[in-house]
Design a protein that fits this description.
heterodimer; A: about 675 residues; alpha+beta; Dna Topoisomerase Vi A Subunit, Chain: A, domain 2; Dna Ligase, domain 1; nine-stranded mixed sheet; six-stranded mixed sheet; 17 helices; globular; B: about 575 residues; 3 domains; seven-stranded antiparallel sheet; 12 helices; disordered N terminus; Oxoprolinase-like (chain B); Hydantoinase_B (chain B)
């Protein structure tokens, strides 16, 4: 059976295919089709099947990571949306947390709300903090409001009432009414999207879900049709931001779950590859055209966060914790008027792109510097498919940077790389410190188009001792999709001080979540495979407003003591101290329902016979002012023999990426096709 | 191939690339400290509201890099190190020492809840750096819970005063001193935890700084610091050179009172000019020392001025001594902007906000027309409800500082409901408030008719209406701009004023003053706190009809307010537009 993973990026759509019965992994890349991403997905799959002579009937799995929902928010292409909310609170969405986005820069504004004020309609209803009804919604009055909203052109409606995480009855009554009165409207209800307290984040998430819902449905419909018409018999799964896959039906209800799904797949892929090669402490380093994504894996597990901004709008969802900075291949390098050289965060993006790509770029980018230095192939990239012009980049660096600073072109280009390195290293340090870890014990997993190009420098700068570069690093996100399970997360806010009595309430809440999780796992779209439920309690000491997640083996009557000691321990690990005598509060109960799918082993790629055979050429590469221009062997990845070490300086080229190995670094390819680089210290 | 030589850049002795790499490494140190502070602290004030700052200084006491989420701390860190060096001769500062302080008059602080810890960093015998942090402590004693009472009459009513003192000696923490500080707080356990975190944060910063020195050598470290400070100064000097020349540009903001409800209005006068290439901000003419706690101590003044310069001239400018060297502040002694001990300073942020508004106003004619902006609400309204929980008698304090309207800008409407200038604090979600405190929120909304009219309208203020759920609920509130709204710019109208109302919409409705020290309300009574809006920018007659129509549709303003601000002709056109729109969508 063949399994296909797809990752839709802004410029390229990447494909990875494995045969669960064994055999080499296939990689493919086609230009994305942003107007309808399903086109590139379907045509790329068909191309890859043809190239590898695989029949569509033999495909048993298609999973994809997509930014369809995210882009809709960024580009504000969602549908006109209404919000029904508690009387007195229609501006919760506009006030947000009352902070301005930039401390000093008044040209930066808060994003305009996704629902205009006149479409944020108040319902005279109210619950108190315990979920008791103070005022019940008058459904006849609500019906009029719904009809007005529909008649004003609204296509989707979000419902968000105060304290609905405690008691969803009011929201459900209104939801049912909308479905009856205006069945054509897409409806999202806050207690169903994310039953957590803190109204702004909950309403924002619910509104965003409604805003992208109808168009996401249409996109999924097109994707299904195209994949079916290619002859593939299975339904496509979609990657979600928390590192798992969802069936179509769930994505239709909760498209917000897929925001930021692409980068998450790279992290999950790294964790899985790490497990195969015995690496459990990992920093992922994913460098693309405009940004660098950094994430931490410890004990083989990715780290999670409960909230992120999507185009300035909070999305409250458990998701893989990824730190993003504005540094990538397209980052623009320029001198400011006071004589400093700055790299990024402005990016030339895919268009006009780096100068050397000949798409009209005129400003020096990090990629141009890499081409001038000979680190990137100065003739063509993507295995010769994309020509580049080193001369143009050289001239631009001379006139824009080197001449004004009075230094050589190569030193200017090297300076651009050094500054980008320093900037990326800062992100890596801050991610590790945030989780209280010392970098020395971590391995840098470098991927994305430009991760392996900068990993060697970044590891030197940060004091990391090891680098791993997976095969075809530019397509790792697609591979991550292949290496993931189906999963869905559930949450309910509890807000109780823990004691024998309240523990019973928590157990009861847990049972409700379990029932929901089991029902989801039992749906038709979920394959018949190993299924599990995992509980986590978000907890804190009384008086804190910040909580930490405490995973539990079981949420049952006798588990209170085990939970309390786990919490104290987790608090000490995270913050350096625990307060044994103090009351503990449980803020949220979380459940993750997982269905493990069969993934197949990573197969060893075809191997070369010797280093000599793998060497395509020797190129002049500039290694900095101390070392100057150095004759450097250039290897083709696919021809490198496994288990044969080689020393830097060396450069390894493959279709989707270029790996730099610096002097005093040793490299070796393992049996799964990963390059391991060790730093001598 | 020949070895290339790295020739000096166009500026003699200045290495642009090395400096930028160094700047990133320095920021890594301040980020490390900031993350450690946030991760490990206990109180929500530091952990969640990020009311803290961290910084790295060189051995001479010059600020090199700073990490802050709250501009009002911009100058405070510098005051700490200056205070330290004034108190202790260099030879008495030894490895393993750490120093603590908070006093605005004796130790360079800005108000007592902000406690600073400064730690010297030694490479061998050489004092090469200081790492410093400041954290806001929820309570340091004094007359009222939270330690900031608008009606305190001297700093002695505002809590425990700490001169610069050793809190660590040769690596040993002075537990006696920590206990003394904790005992003087209403929340002692939090103090002990957070102070230890402050000491540990500096230890961490110190290790990171030493690591950097080891890597670059002491000389390299010093050379790069020199480059960085020189670069920052050069960059700011270029911005100053770009300002319009001429006589000082003036602006006056009027505080409603001197901090006490019966006080007269107090002027805050700013005059901005360029003298010999330096930026001079002269506050002569500002009112006398205030009786209430709204005096701006020296380092609060510097913070406010530095914030304004950075925001107005170059938001990306690194906050270090290089920036501060080109700014001259003049504030006559004995005034609200240069008070003498023991004048109270606890609620200084209200006045700092209004002062920032005055400095912004004075700068407007001088700055690039494409960055001009009208006055924002320029206040830091705060309220605190406190009392004993009916269910168990435990004491609670529920406080919040409330956003308001941003000023209309030359290229767009002002932001609605945001913090401005020297603060940027999160609000308290209604669901969190109701869960934690015996309070019921009836309304949390933007204030209609609060936005100043203009080509670009001002931002709207925020209103929150809170109902007491038990008798003898105590209310404290401090605000300003209840008497006159935020002025518009270049023809724009002024924003709405702030209002605090008891029992609004009932027969018992009562308007309250902007400073309330203690008001007891009973079960079922409500208080509505509405903050001012921002001023409009540009002639209202130039606002496109479609935008006026949108504002009417969205109930940003009443028709009456629109007619007064934009005139009948525009409003009639806007109303026609709305009617047509409705007809179209009905069809």
């Amino acid at each position: 059976m063949y399994r296909i993973g797809v990752d839709v990026g802004g410029t390229f759509t990447d494909f990875v295919m494995v045969n669960t019965e064994g055999g080499p992994t296939a990689f493919h890349k086609v230009p994305s089709t942003p107007d309808d991403p399903s086109r590139a997905i379907a045509s790329g799959i068909v191309e890859m099947l043809t190239l590898n002579a695989v029949s569509p009937e033999d495909v048993g799995y298609v999973g994809h990571g997509t930014t369809v929902a995210t882009n809709m928010v960024i580009e504000r292409r969602g549908v006109p949306t209404g919000l029904l909310t508690t009387k007195g609170f229609r501006d919760v969405l506009a006030i947000g947390r009352q902070t301005r986005p930039s401390l000093f820069d008044w040209s930066v504004r808060k994003p305009t709300e996704l629902v205009e004020r006149h479409r944020r309609v108040e319902v005279d209803e109210r619950l108190d903090k315990s979920g008791t009804t103070l005022a019940a919604p008058d459904l006849a009055a609500v019906e009029k409001l719904v009809v007005q909203l529909r008649d004003s052109g609204v296509k989707a409606v979000a419902v968000g009432f105060l304290h609905s995480y405690r008691n969803p009855e009011h929201e459900r009554a209104v939801r049912d009414l909308i479905k009856r009165v205006a069945p054509e409207l897409y409806v999202s209800v806050s207690s169903e999207v994310v039953a957590e307290f803190r109204e702004y984040e909950r309403f924002s998430t619910t509104v965003l879900n409604a805003y992208v819902g109808p168009h996401t449905q249409k996109y999924l419909h097109r994707l299904r049709e195209k994949i079916a018409s290619s002859g593939i018999k299975v339904e496509p799964l979609t990657f979600h931001s928390n590192g798992g896959l969802l069936p179509v039906q769930t994505v239709e209800e909760l498209p917000v779950l897929t925001c930021l799904s692409g980068p998450a797949a790279g992290v999950i892929g790294s964790a899985r590859i790490g497990a195969e090669i015995g690496e459990s402490e990992i920093i992922t380093f994913d460098v693309g055209g405009t940004s660098t994504d950094v994430s931490l894996i410890t004990g083989g597990r990715a780290q999670f966060t409960s909230s992120r901004l999507v185009a300035g709008h909070p999305v409250r969802m458990p998701m893989v914790d990824i730190h993003v900075i504005g540094a990538g291949g397209g980052s623009i390098a320029r001198l400011d008027d006071a004589g400093a050289l700055k790299v990024g965060p402005t990016s030339a993006g895919a268009m006009p792109g780096p100068i050397s790509y000949l798409r009209g770029g005129t400003e020096v980018t990090l990629t141009d510097a890499n081409i001038v230095l000979g680190r990137l192939n100065p003739v063509a990239l993507l295995e010769g498919r994309m020509k580049v012009d080193r001369g143009l980049a050289y001239a631009a660096i001379r006139s824009q940077i080197a001449d004004p600073l009075g230094i050589s072109v190569e030193d200017a280009a090297h300076g651009v790389v050094s500054i980008a390195t320093a900037n990326m290293s800062r992100a890596i340090r801050s991610v590790s410190i945030e989780h209280g870890h010392d970098l020395a014990g971590f391995t840098l997993f470098a991927f994305g188009g430009a991760g392996p190009l900068h990993a060697a420098d970044v590891a030197e700068e940060c004091g990391l001792n090891k680098i791993v570069v997976p095969q075809e690093p530019g397509t790792l996100c697609a591979r991550g999709v292949l290496l993931s399970d189906l999963s869905r997360d559930y949450v309910r806010t509890a807000l109780v001080r823990v004691n024998g009595e309240s523990w019973a309430e928590l157990v009861a809440l847990g049972a409700e979540l379990s029932a929901a999780g089991r029902a989801w796992l039992a749906t038709e779209a979920i394959p018949d495979a190993a299924k599990e439920l995992h509980f986590t309690l978000d907890a804190r000491y009384r008086g804190q407003s910040h909580y930490i997640p405490v995973p539990l083996d079981t949420l049952s009557d006798g588990a209170l003591d085990a939970f309390a000691s786990s919490f104290h321990r987790a608090h000490a690990d995270q913050f350096g101290y625990s307060l044994e005598g103090r009351d503990i509060e449980v803020v949220n109960v979380r459940l993750k329902a997982v269905c493990h799918v069969r993934k197949g082993e990573s197969a060893a790629p075809a191997q070369g016979s010797s280093l000599d055979a793998a060497r395509i050429e020797t190129r002049q590469v500039y290694l900095g002012p101390e070392r100057g221009w150095v004759h450097t062997p250039i290897y083709r990845r696919a021809l490198l023999p496994a288990g044969v070490p080689f020393e830097g300086p060396a450069i390894v080229e493959e279709m989707s990426g270029t790996t730099v190995v610096l002097p005093r670094q040793n490299a070796e390819v393992d049996g799964f096709g990963n390059i391991h680089i060790t730093l001598q210290r | 191939m020949t070895m290339p030589n790295r020739a000096a850049g166009s500026i003699a002795g200045f290495d642009a690339i090395a400096m930028e790499v160094f700047a990133n490494r320095l920021l890594s140190i301040t980020e490390t400290m900031a993350i450690n502070m946030m991760r490990s602290s206990f109180s929500a004030q530091i952990k969640e509201r990020r009311d803290f700052s961290v910084g790295l200084f060189d051995g001479k006491g010059r600020l090199v890099a700073q990490g802050t989420h709250i501009p009002v701390h911009l100058g405070s860190l510098m005051g700490v190190v200056e205070g330290l060096l004034k108190r202790y001769p260099r030879e008495e500062i030894r490895p393993g020492d750490a120093f603590i302080s908070n006093d605005p008059y004796a130790a360079g602080g800005t108000h007592l809840p902000d406690i600073a810890v400064g730690t010297p960093v030694f490479q061998g015998d050489e004092l090469i750096a200081f790492v410093v942090n400041i954290g806001h402590h929820t309570d340091v004693g004094g007359a009222v819970p939270g330690s900031t009472s608008p009606t305190a009459r001297s700093i002695f009513e505002e809590g425990l005063r700490l001169p610069v003192m050793r809190v660590c000696r040769e690596g040993e923490v002075d537990e006696d001193l920590l206990n003394l500080i904790a005992l003087n707080s209403r929340l002692p356990e939090e103090r002990l935890l957070d102070l230890r975190v402050q000491i540990a944060t500096n230890a961490r910063g110190s290790d990171a700084a030493l690591e950097l020195v080891r890597r670059m050598g002491v000389d390299g470290f010093k050379a790069r610091i020199h480059d960085l400070l020189a670069y920052t100064k050069r960059r700011l000097d270029l911005r100053i050179a770009g300002l319009a020349a001429g006589a000082p540009s003036r602006f006056t903001a009027w505080l409603d009172d001197d901090g006490l409800p019966d006080g007269e209005m107090v002027p805050l006068c700013a005059a901005v000019s360029v003298e010999d290439g330096k930026l001079v901000i002269d506050l002569t003419g500002s009112g006398p020392e205030a009786r209430g706690a709204i005096n701006i101590a020296e380092n609060a003044l510097r913070a406010t001025a530095y914030y304004c310069v950075k925001a107005l001239l170059d938001p990306e400018l690194m906050a270090n001594s290089g920036m501060m060297d080109s700014i001259v502040l003049r504030a006559p002694e004995g005034t609200i902007v240069n008070p003498r001990s023991p004048a109270p300073v606890g609620s200084r942020t209200i006045a700092c906000q209004r002062l920032a508004g005055a400095i912004f106003g004075a700068f407007q004619p001088l700055v690039d027309p494409d960055t001009r902006i009208a006055s924002a609400y320029d206040v830091l309204p705060s309220f605190g409800f406190s009392g004993h929980r009916p269910e168990n008698g435990s004491f609670y304090i529920c406080g919040e500082t409330v956003g308001g309207g941003g000023g209309g800008r030359c290229d767009g409407d002002g932001m609605d409901g945001v913090h401005v200038h020297v603060t940027n604090s999160l609000n308290l979600p209604t669901e969190a408030m109701e869960n934690e405190f015996p309070l019921h929120v009836e309304e949390y909304t933007l204030v209609r008719d609060s936005a100043g009219c203009g080509r670009w309208r001002g931002g709207m203020g925020i209103a929150r209406t809170v109902r007491a759920l038990h008798d003898r609920t105590n209310l404290e509130a401090r605000s300003d701009r209840h008497k006159a709204g935020a002025p518009g710019a270049e023809g724009g109208g002024h924003g709405g004023v702030g209002r605090v109302t008891r029992n609004p919409g009932t027969g018992r409705e009562q308007a309250l003053p902007s400073k309330i020290a203690q008001l007891l309300i009973d079960t079922g009574e409500t208080v509505r706190i509405a903050t001012p809006g921002g001023g409009g920018f540009g002639n209202p007659a130039e606002r496109p009809v479609a935008l006026i129509a949108t504002d009417l549709l969205n109930d940003i303003m009443t028709e009456e307010h629109a007619r007064a601000g934009y005139g009948d002709a525009l409003v009639d056109q806007a109303l026609t537009l709305l009617r047509e729109g409705r007809r179209k969508s009905a069809a």
